[in-house]
Amino acid sequence: MSNVQDTRKTQVINATMLRTKTRDILEQAKFQGEHFIVETFGKPMVAILHNLVGLLHANLAIYYAYIDRAPIFIIGATGPMDETKRRPRTDWIHTASVQGSAIRDYTKWDYQPNTIDGVPESFARAYGVMMTEPRGPVSSTRQTRQAP
Predict the structure, then answer these.
(1) Peptide bond preceding 134 in cis form (omega within 30 of 0)
(2) pLDDT digit string (tens) for 100-143?
(3) Which pTM does this prediction carry?
(4) E-state strands within the chain
(5) Of 3.50.30.20, 3.40.50.2300, 3.40.50.970, 3.90.1150.10, which CATH number belongs to 2-143?
């Protein structure tokens, strides 16, 4: 019985690792696709990345966009800033105090509004900064809905 349980655990772990690696590849590929469209058509693009994990996996692609002066608006999310409202494990490992610090050296601007009221103004500012020469990627991170 123990061997069957061990085999099942190994299968679950392997499936989880494969799903994680696939998501990691997709985050970078998604961002590189946006970069390709910007280079091809000269239009600004939006890249929505999955939380801190997606941002870190797209890191090199963001750097290449910066080098090429590609205007890409990166929209990300982070977990609740209020520690008492975070779910066990999930929110703790996907939340950063200032998520933009991971890419700050090669983006023109990053901002993390604290309330929903700050989002429209931050989007307008992001667009203006992104399209001003020399063009380049900008980032705005939004706090996800807090768990009850």
Answers:
(1) yes
(2) 888 999 999 998 887 788 888 989 999 999 999 999 999 988 87
(3) 0.73
(4) 45-48, 72-78, 109-111, 138-143
(5) 3.40.50.970
